[in-house]
DNA sequence: CGCGACGCAATACGATCGTATAGTATCCAA
DNA sequence: TTGGATACTATACGATCGTATTGCGTCGCG
């Protein structure tokens, strides 16, 4: 049924009814979260019966796992192509934006909806960032050191923050950064923020702030050591 | 009942049973999201009956609004005290961490659970950041300009990203940045990331990247103008 | 003393949820 | 031709949800 008969052979996977259901789930999970979406909602958007959703994915958790798997597959595939050039996470993000809007929107929600699979994606991004830090400043960020892990994780969270909080950015900037072709706005803005902060930290005030924080941390470390 | 009789007169608000219910709601909403939390869950954690929750807040949406109002009140109160020194958002974040762990954890979830009230908090943070940008670089970030709005919103999202993604940071760094007394780890890491990126952007590669992006944006602008 | 107001629990209700089951149509292989 | 997968719909069931209702005890105040 549903004709088009397309190519002759194997169940190529995509654009099948199963894929349409999965895409509907991706969209609704991204919009309302997993808890806020019912199987009947998904069936409605995919224009099939609720029973069919269950037939293809077994359970609601099955749909979620299928969504996670599809997103992970897409992201990792893009990550390979993006190479490991400098600022890996920024490029990776950009290529993902271009790959599939649906996947990116789901990813943005899944990062705070604690899906175990998508959590591994954060880890992968943080790992790439850590490697980049070590490559750029080997003596400052040794591989595996605590400081390297902390900086890499924080930087990853900052970059992904612009993804996760896209709704607020859209409201405040008057344009949706997840809409097709708008990703560069965020990339440019992040780069510009780094540039501005670079100036700021070189200023008199910036030097003072850095020194104050360094002293505070030394103090903290000293107190911990003598405790 | 519940003795202590405390002060004589009016329902002073806090530590009343009503406040205990609200705190339980704050915790559960933060942990599982609004959709993932039932009124009976809240009643269970507050050790009261489900009917009492309804009696105090009217409906589930009423509880949510009460949580939002309490968080907004707490945050704004902290924002006043924190002054408007440099890097306002960082200081504001730090003082909030110290004020109430429960409030911060709820805020982290509410920022991606689209609560209208908490959305206004993002706006307030972005506005403070925009003002700081304009004060620091008046010619580069004029008040009200599009570039100022974009940079301020992006910077705010980057900083709040470390809040919203705290679970991933906790997993990757081996310590919960929202635990009492751990906020400085993120502050220090963010500052260090800015410092590192400052070095990077001054390097040969960094200059090349910035030039490439500038050309890309000029190209984009030109194409839009001649279209 | 009495009588509302309030804090609180218990129960009941309709709606909706995830899921199980039964049934129909279609198509490929023996 | 037939028979069993496969794709798909329809319906039903038990659990849980938000909410409304009712009732009980305990104050404060006339």
TrEMBL record, chains A, B:
Keywords: DNA-binding. Residues 38-57 bind DNA. The keyword DNA-binding applies. Residues 15-75 form the HTH tetR-type domain. The keyword Nuclease does not apply. It holds the Pfam family TetR_N. It comes from the Bacteria. GO terms for molecular function: DNA-binding transcription factor activity; transcription cis-regulatory region binding. PANTHER family: HTH-TYPE TRANSCRIPTIONAL REGULATOR RUTR, TRANSCRIPTIONAL REGULATORY PROTEIN. This is Transcriptional regulator, TetR family.
């Amino acid at each position: 049924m549903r004709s088009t008969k397309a190519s002759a052979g194997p169940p190529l996977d995509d654009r099948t009814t199963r894929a349409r259901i999965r895409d509907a789930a991706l969209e609704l999970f991204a919009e309302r979260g997993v808890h806020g979406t019912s199987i009947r909602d998904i069936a409605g958007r995919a224009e099939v019966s609720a029973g069919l959703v269950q037939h293809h994915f077994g359970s609601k958790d099955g749909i979620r796992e299928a969504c996670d798997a599809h997103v992970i597959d897409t992201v990792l595939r893009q990550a390979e192509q993006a190479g490991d050039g400098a600022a890996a996470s920024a490029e990776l993000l950009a290529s993902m934006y271009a790959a599939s809007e649906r996947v990116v929107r789901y990813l943005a929600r899944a990062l705070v909806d604690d899906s175990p699979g998508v959590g591994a994606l954060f880890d992968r991004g943080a790992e790439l960032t850590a490697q980049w830090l070590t490559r750029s400043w080997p003596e400052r960020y040794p591989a595996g050191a605590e400081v390297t892990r902390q900086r890499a994780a924080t930087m990853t969270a900052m970059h992904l923050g612009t993804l996760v909080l896209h709704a607020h950015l859209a409201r405040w900037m008057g344009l949706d950064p997840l809409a097709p072709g708008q990703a560069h706005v965020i990339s440019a803005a992040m780069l510009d923020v780094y540039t501005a902060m670079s100036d700021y930290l070189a200023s008199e005030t910036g030097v003072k702030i850095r020194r104050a924080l360094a002293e505070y941390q030394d103090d903290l470390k000293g107190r911990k050591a003598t405790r």
